[in-house]
Amino acid sequence: MSALASTIANDEAPGFPGVSFGRSADGMNVALVGEHAYAMVPARGGKHYLASGWRIRRPMPEWTRSDFYSHHGELADAAAFRKAVVQQAEHQREQQALGRREARIAASTPWGASQGASIYADGVVFHGTAGHGGFHLSTERNAKVHPLLRADGGWYEEDEAWAIVAMTFPHLFTAFERRCAERTVQDSWPDAWETIFGTLLQPGESRTKDRRAFEREHANDWIVTSAITSSHEKGFVEVVATPGGRRGEGTEERRFLVPSDEYEIGRFGFVIDEARHPVYGGPSDFIGWQRGRAR
User: What ranges in the chain are assigned the alpha helix state H?
Assistant: First the structure.
């Protein structure tokens, strides 16, 4: 371990579970927090993202990219990787202090039969199922959820709605979970957030609001709905686009050619520049258009 990694492990993440840093067999920055492994994985365009694995039973110098399977967002640089790992260490330490209990509870959830539960507190239980999961709040607990976010029946799925539970009962969650929850509510329920907190979310602070702005701005532009590398026009991507990216029967479609090195989908879709991306009427790599489909 480098001197810098040792300093981080000792000074920035004291206590359980500890942090160790190193390099993988393929040269990635990697770290170990308890039984959770993390890597700074390279991506296209010189970018990197945080990936994780679990219970890798080999020394760090033998780890490889194939050991990591979960994606946790983009990383700006090595310093950002170290910061993210330290946050995970703090998160795990706080989880231990919260004293959540694992249990087997016979329950039918909106996602199937419960196969295991975590009890956060009386009336606040997370259920895992074969394919999904989420929280169930008792009637008394659910009454404490703000009416703009409250779910009838008290079920809150694990992808986004869990954040409503964390925002309502912050003392039951770690600092890392609370930060994630705030961002999730801002992204998914911006109108409720603004009403509850009396604030206006700015551009970049809510994915839903940003998408609405994008859709308003490009309502009449051609937005790509399908894309495929062209085998007929070397160095180009053949795309199908519709006005505003709309789909459905009766929607007009056109094909365009976009240089391969220019085609980046972006957050909400690729916008055709009609002055630079020509309408394409040649042989197609799309099966539907190969059959003589005309627009």
Answer: 3-7, 78-98, 139-142, 162-168, 175-188, 190-197, 207-217, 287-290
Tokens of 120: 């956060």
User: Contact 38/30 with Cβ under 8 angstroms?
Assistant: yes
The whole-model pTM stands at 0.79
Q: Find the length of the chain.
A: 295
For residues 242 and 253, the answer to whether their CB atoms sit within 8 Å is yes
Buried/exposed 113-126: b ≥16 CB within 10 Å, e otherwise = ebeebbebeebbbb
Per-residue pLDDT of the chain (295 residues; tens, 9 = 90+): 333 333 333 334 444 457 899 999 999 999 999 899 999 999 887 899 999 999 999 999 999 999 999 998 899 999 999 999 998 999 988 988 999 999 999 999 999 999 999 999 999 999 999 989 999 999 999 999 999 999 999 999 999 999 999 999 999 999 999 999 999 999 999 999 999 999 999 999 999 999 999 999 999 999 999 999 999 999 999 999 999 999 988 899 999 999 999 999 889 999 999 999 999 999 998 887 866 554 4
Q: Which of 26, 37, 38 is nearest to 64 (CA)?
A: 26
Specify the residue for token string 């999961």: 133
Query: Do residues 166 and 173 touch, judged by C-beta distance below 8 A?
Result: yes
Query: What count of Cα atoms within 13 Å lies in the side-chain half-sphere of residue 261?
Result: 2
Cβ neighbourhood burial of 84 (10 Å; 0-12, 13-18, 19+): middle
Domain ranges of the chain: 3-98, 101-197, 218-290
